[in-house]
Amino acid sequence: MRWLWLPMLAFFAYLTGEAAWEQRWALAAVYAVVGIGLSYWLSPWQGGRSRRHEEVLAMPESERQVVIYWRPGCQYCMRLKSSLGDLRDKALWVNIWQDDDAAAFVRSVNDGNETVPTVVIDGEAHTNPDPGMVRERLEAPA
């Protein structure tokens, strides 16, 4: 799944080229926009700056009260991120597709599975928690 964005981009590039070859410009534009959008959504760079697991562990506990382990293309991660609104910037986000140590940590707390979002709140791991619980912790004074 980590590299699914590459064949997705190639497939939509092919469709865009075919539509352009047939001079179906509107269809080519739709294929290009959808292909770029889906490829970006699945790419490891989606989501902006992500911290590394070792960087988070090096921080004092008072600065890492909410750590969210996520991966691109995960609908549950996007649901959590969107439901947090402006509070999402108070959490520390770690992309498990960019950090093997983070992926290993997630597997260690999820019976060997890379289930995300895995949210660590005050040192306790929660797998796919209710967004209200995460929001409540982020709203609480530090």
Question: What keywords describe this structure?
Answer:
Glutaredoxin; alpha+beta; 4-stranded mixed β-sheet; 4 strands; 49% helix; 2 domains; 142 residues; single chain
Corresponding CATH architecture of the largest domain: 3-Layer(aba) Sandwich
Average pLDDT works out at 87
Measured between the Cα atoms of the first and last residue, the distance is 37 Å
Low-confidence stretches: none
Question: What's the CATH H-level homologous superfamily of the largest domain?
Answer: Glutaredoxin
Number of helices: 6
The sequence of SSEs as H and E is: HHHEHEHEEH
Find the CATH topology of the largest domain: Glutaredoxin
| Major beta sheet, strand line-up | 2-1-3-4
Structural class: alpha+beta
Indicate the CATH class of the largest domain.
Alpha Beta
Instruction: Summarize the amount of helix as a percent range.
Output: 40-55%
Q: How many independent structural domains?
A: 2
Evaluate the radius of gyration: 18 Å
Range of strand content: 5-15%
Largest β sheet strand count, sense and barrel closure: 4 strands, mixed
Strand tally, please? 4
Shape: elongated
